[in-house]
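Field: sequence (string)
Field: structure_tokens (string)

Example rows 1 and 2, in order.
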Amino acid sequence: MNFTDIIYDKADKVATVTFNRPEKLNAWTPKMGAEMREAIMDAERDSQIGAIVITGAGRAYCAGADMESLGQVASGRGTARVATEEDEWTKRQRPDYRTSYSWLLGLSKPVIGAINGACVGLGFTTCLYHDIRIASDRARMGLIFVQRGLAIEHGSSWMLPRIVGVARAMELAVTGRLVDAREALEMGLVNRVVPHDKLMDSARELARDIADKCSPLGVATAKRMIYQHLFTDLATGVREDDESMEMMSRSEDFKEGIRAFMEKRAPKFTGR
């Protein structure tokens, strides 16, 4: 795989995808999106990878769509629509997870966003589909679309209220204002804030902890159930959680987890 708009590496059971247009504050291009998907799907298929980290090179995570691309849309020479890649993996997912960036929710592996700087517009939208978000104390985040004559996009109106609540989502959507890392933490938009020079260490440490200490089958099941139950009632959630627990209790990972605890050693999970 030869990438130009991202950097992709795998080490210590963690795959890292870095948006790599620092001179443009990692402004989003269709090529960047395609490369990101190719890399992440490689990580999803790799049984040695337990978690995925996404970040940006330089001063920004992603400062939104490339303005040249937006100029083409404004002049009628382009489209703001994001094409969906209809591969076999996509076809097996829930309909909710087949479009735009919602396919990230259908991955079996957790995605950790390491928000290193400006995370704006399409960059903000993308990070809503990360399972966990860790922010540098230099991060600034916002939708800004209404300040460009646009409305929020790609399911932001569905995801954002579920992350920060309706009132805060409405304020961010209709003002387009940016919030700093501290305010993002207060509203629940990010899980934690760390010093800028500790960001990648913190994100990778969390990713390694998941990869080293947790059952891949358990992680995949937990992720699937949490997102799936955003669409169901409590009774369905209880029933399906109980069914998942029954299934997991017959797995090799469960047997290994009990053996490792009794033998006072680290478990060696296989995902079976």
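Row 2 begins here:
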Amino acid sequence: MAEVPAGTSVAWADALPPTRSAALARIARVRPAEYARTRNHLDGAVTGLSPYITHGLVTLREVLAGVLQQGPLPVQHKLVFELGWRAFFRHVWAHEGDGILHSLHPGPRPDAAYAPVLPPDIRQARTGVPVIDEAVRTLYATQQFQI
């Protein structure tokens, strides 16, 4: 296994090895129809490609080309749509820089409405909302956050 940065869960590193070959293998396993239908489910068919794209191991063009090897997808397909949003975000970020972290619209901002810390029920994954509780547990399990 490749060297894992300090503080990184070994289980996470095993699931997403930081190599180009691992990224290409994940692209080959993408099932567009399942992704479109279940990507927002707790056990949905997500691609797991974000870390590979973010760190430049594969490009958006390579992801799309790899998925299209399975067959054509209409431009309206949810996977194509999400790749498009990622490309759009990069474009805006290139032009706006860290300005993307601030509201583009004048007027009152809700920043003051947010508490400086997460409420205990969220931190402890006990909100009673399954998708939120599972997401919090996943963060702890994959990133070694502390409760």
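free_text_note (row 2): Residues 2 and 17 are 7 Å apart (CA to CA).
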